[in-house]
Amino acid sequence: MTRPLTLLAAALGFAAASASAHQIWLEQPAKGSAVIRFGEFGDNLREASPGLLDKFGKPAATLVSAQGEEKSADGSKTASGFALPFAARQGESIVAEDASYPLRKFKQGDKEVTSWYHPGARLITGFAAQQPKLALDLVPAGQPGEFKLFFKGQPLPKAKVALVTQSGWAKEGHTDEQGLVKFDMPWKGQYVAEVSHIDRTPGERAGEKYDGVSYVTTLTYVKAGGVAPIPAGPAAAPNK
């Protein structure tokens, strides 16, 4: 299936940049700790350092236990992501975000606009319903393949959600009035659901004024069974 338009391509008039079409997502090897990646999962693109990965300030993550206990840590930058000191076991989840990505100025007609790119990510190990923690947060809703989207704690209706695999296979859906969306997930392996939302409310961050915020969030789930996945293409070269 053809890979859909990258998440923020529809928002190019507000946040055009080589990095603005990207997202962060969480990966976790079968053995080892979780890692925050930056790039395009469906294009098998992981940005590196030196390169676009260096634009990040200090992405932070929180491990949430099945009982709701939390453990937070900053990511440690490596050549291909930000390593975390923990992994999510069955029933646990991880959320991550970078709230200090540099503000970007650009021209929109005759007006100079300042945009805040605010990426977030979640990793789940099951579909038990969870409460949101990120500003824009896609959480499991209690049934396999069912998710609920929240923005600032409230369900977000009529939002486009793209579900992708590393091979580029993708499906698109839209949340209903309750913020719910459901997907069939036939393939074995890793899925990443991607969502974006633009908040055009002006504000100020650390003394810098901005005209709006481009929120991007992802949800990662690794399915243990299913149809053998389509092989991923060659890894894309990182941007410098």
Mean pLDDT: 90
The residue fraction in helices comes out at under 10%
What's the N-to-C terminus distance? 29 Å
Helical segment count:
1
**General form:** globular
Strand content: 35-45%
Which structural class do you get from the secondary structure elements? mainly beta
Helix and strand sequence? HEEEEEEEEEEEEEEEEEEEE
Biggest sheet layout: 9 strands, mixed
> What is the rounded Rg?
17 Å
The beta-strand count equals: 20
Search tags:
single chain; 240 residues; mainly beta; 5-stranded antiparallel beta sheet; disordered N terminus
Describe the structure.
It contains one helix and 20 strands. The chain is globular, with a radius of gyration of 17 Å. By secondary structure, the chain is mainly beta. The N terminus is likely disordered. Strands 4, 5, 8, 9, 10, 14, 15, 17 and 20 form a nine-stranded mixed β-sheet that branches. Strands 1, 2, 3, 6 and 7 form a five-stranded antiparallel β-sheet that branches. Strand 9 and strand 10 form a beta hairpin. The longest helix has 4 residues.
